[in-house]
Structure formats: C-alpha cells, structure tokens
Amino acid sequence: MGPNENVINQVSTLRDTDHDTSRAGGDIPAGTPYHRVLDRKTKGRGIPRGILAIVLLFGGLLGFGAVAAQISGQIDLLLGRDSIVTGGTEFTTVTLAATFASSALLIPWSMLIQRWLYGVKGRTMHSVTGVFRAAVLGRAVLVLVPVWAVYMTVLTILQPSVMTDWAVGDLLFMFVVTVLIVPLQTAGEEYGFRGLIFRVAASWGRSPRSALALGVVVSSVLFATIHLSTDLWLNLQFLAVGITFALITWRTGGLETSVVLHAANNSLGLMLALVLHADLNATTDRSSGVGSMAFLIPVVLLAVITGVIWYRTRHTGPALTPAP
C-alpha cells in the first residue's frame, strides 16, 4: 500500500505527519507516537492480552515455518536432493527459500493479531499515517543501502567465507530468491517485532518513558531469542539490531527505515555469498565461537545511524499521528 500524491508532495524529511487521520486508523488520537497506538485499548493494563498476542505471533512464526519445511522437503525429494528437512545433510536452496517465504507471512499475521485483539486497523502498523510511506522508503534506500554495502564488503574481508561448489541452477534460483523473497522475509520480522511486539510491550507502560523502555527491551530480547545463537558476539549484534531498529521506528514513526536496513543486510549478505560461492551451512552457523570483535562494526554503525536520525528530529521529536 503506497501513499497518495498529496503525501508524496508534502514529505520532506524522514517524518510524515500531514495526512488524513482516517487513514491512520480512525479512533487513534492525534499526536500519538508509533509505539503507543495500542494504549487506548489497554490503558496500561493489557498484559494478559499482550502475552497472548506475542504467543500468537510466535505460533505463526513456528507454524508457517513447519508447513514451509514440509513443502520444501517434498520438493527436494522430487528433485533428488538430500535435504536436512527429510533427514539428510544438505541445506538446500529450496529449504532456504521456503524458510524466507514463511517469515514473510508475519506481515499479514501481525496485522490480523492487532486487529483481532486490539481492534486497531492493520494498516496502522505501516506508520503513524496508516500507509507505507514511499518517500521515507526511497530516502532510506538512497542514503542507507550504499553505506550498508560498504560495511558488508568490509566485514566479508575481515570474516572470509568458507567456499564450496555451487550448481549454476542453484545460483540462479538463489539470485531470484534474494531479490524477490528476502526483502519480504525481513519485512515480516519488522512487522512482527518492531510492529506488533514493540507496540504490545509499550502498551504495558503507564508513562512515556516506561512505555518506550518496555517496548524496546521486550521486542529486542525476543528478536535476539528467535535467532537461537549461543555466540556472545552474535547475540550482541542481534540485541543492537533490535534496540536501534525500535528507536528508529519510534523516531521516524514507521517501519520503512528499519525494513530497508534489515533487507539491505540480508539481501547484500546473500548476494556476496553467491558471488563468492560461500558455503551457506557455514554462513548460517550461530554456535558459540563463530563470532568475533568484527561484529562490533555493525553495532557501532547502527548506533551512528540511529544518532543521526535522532539528531535530525531533535526539534520535532518522534513522528506522531496527524491531526484532522
């Protein structure tokens, strides 16, 4: 869903606030920051409802993943591949594509949970204006993707990949998956964690500070948890991603910038893996000892990006739902 022509003409910063209140969700009061949209429905006392929302989100994540694994396993059997899903040892491209696609389903699932449990329209999850703002997305792509490309190149030099043989068909298939599915996979995680969980946990706080702290901490810890890493450096990176993406979402008033950063990280990482013929089994290893101090680079970079966005909004504060 994209903004109308009036929106495109009026946007001049990473914030959009001059839009029709009805598009932002109708009963949401004007002047509400992104993470406090659910406050009116809970009044700081919606912990059981919030826990149910988080359980449903994780249930969808696991359920969609299980179904995708079964489908990919059957496809691999037809192709004669020794997939890990069917008890083999090969981490196939079909399995990886199915996993990405299952995460993309968190976009509609998160919206449905919010609508069902809180009565708030799903489109409010895009941003405080109720639309996925193309202008904000475009600026994030133009400014942040080149920066992230340089960082990924440097990290690849510092952390060389293990090489392996790739079939031409697998390379071409993964190229299509990287371009078409991976951005949706990363967006699914953003809608689930910086969208639904960030808002749910923030609704438990009674004051603005406690609401923001709860939203950031709960969403970040749960985001790190789903990556199932036992490595200190990797967990530090996942926590940094969760914290900075939540703060960016709060200040910009929407998910566009965090979606771009997340998609750039995963898509560029896979592109480099394809170019270098990297072993995906090694690159997806999250066991203890695989990380290093090189993973402090993205932590510092994310802190700088967050600081710049905060500085640019220092006079206006976080983006808020617009007045009529």
From TrEMBL:
Keywords: Hydrolase, Membrane, Metalloprotease, Protease, Transmembrane, Transmembrane helix. Residues 171-267 form the CAAX prenyl protease 2/Lysostaphin resistance protein A-like domain. InterPro entries: CAAX_protease (IPR052710), Rce1/LyrA-like_dom (IPR003675). The keyword Zinc does not apply. GO terms for molecular function: endopeptidase activity; metallopeptidase activity. The chain crosses the membrane at residues 50-71, 91-109, 130-151, 171-188, 209-226, 232-250, 259-278, 290-311. Pfam families: Rce1-like. It comes from the Bacteria. One of its GO terms (biological process) is CAAX-box protein maturation. PANTHER family: CAAX AMINO TERMINAL PROTEASE FAMILY PROTEIN, SLR1288 PROTEIN. This is CPBP family intramembrane metalloprotease. It comes from Arthrobacter sunyaminii.
